[in-house]
Amino acid sequence: xxxxxxxxxxxxxxxxxxxxxxxxxxxxxxxxxPSEDKLLPYECGNVPVGTxxxxxxxxxxxxxxxxxxxxxxxxFMFPWAVLFKGLGLLGLIEMAVFVLILLxxxxxxxxxxxxxxx
Amino acid sequence: xxxxxxAYLFSGLAVLFAISTILQxxxxxxxxxxxxxxxxxxxxxxxxxxxxxxxxxxIVYVGAIMVLFVFVIMLLNLERAKREKLLISRRAVGxxxxxxxxLKLAMVGYASKxxxxxxxLKIPEGMGSTQVIGKYLFSNYLLxxxxxxxxxxxxxxxxxxxxKREAS
Lengths: 118, 168
Known about the structure:
heterodimer; A: 118 residues; mainly alpha; Methane Monooxygenase Hydroxylase, Chain G, domain 1; B: 168 residues; Four Helix Bundle (Hemerythrin (Met), subunit A); globular
């Protein structure tokens, strides 16, 4: 039973090794000539206008919440998709009700203009 | 059995990550340690043959809930708060709450052990697999499933009410 997870283990080991080796090798063989400009925090190429450690606007929270809500919605769809053929029309209606309720939420957010960045 | 040793390994690592979560002074490091706890719990779910729960643990908790935690850290700028020492009284409250929660969890675990061993609680064959969870979710537990979407809707509306300023 656990043997089925061997590929997952191998993938995890390779992923960790890849990250670790990349960091180690570039740290080891890379030349370091730090200058004041190079040590600036990287802000997409712009010169930073202040510390990055400041309070972020609360409107970011809406995006995080939107992400969570629809992430959980999709999580519920996995078992539904696995069983889709066996569930028949009733299963389709069940999921339609579920999605419709969340669609109302999306329409509410949209109607409130919360998707706009002002 | 190798799975027993693996369970001890994952549980031990989970405890270490949990200790790291509460000892880190920088809240972002705490959040990163919490990811470790959640991944280790997911590994334990796999050992318990609950692969669907393990996948959901990664997708929802490590993926989505951690995003929310990190956003809250950013929103509150906890960077400054990290240097503040906690009052002894607050620590005492934390320890007491932690002990109470541990006791409750131990009781739940022990009670379900008794219920299963006496045969009063039957776990369906293959429980934890995606098929079996889906089968129960879309038949016996249909109402909780539909209510879940309402709970998500409430969360969504709450976020908009909190985060969206009315145009004035």
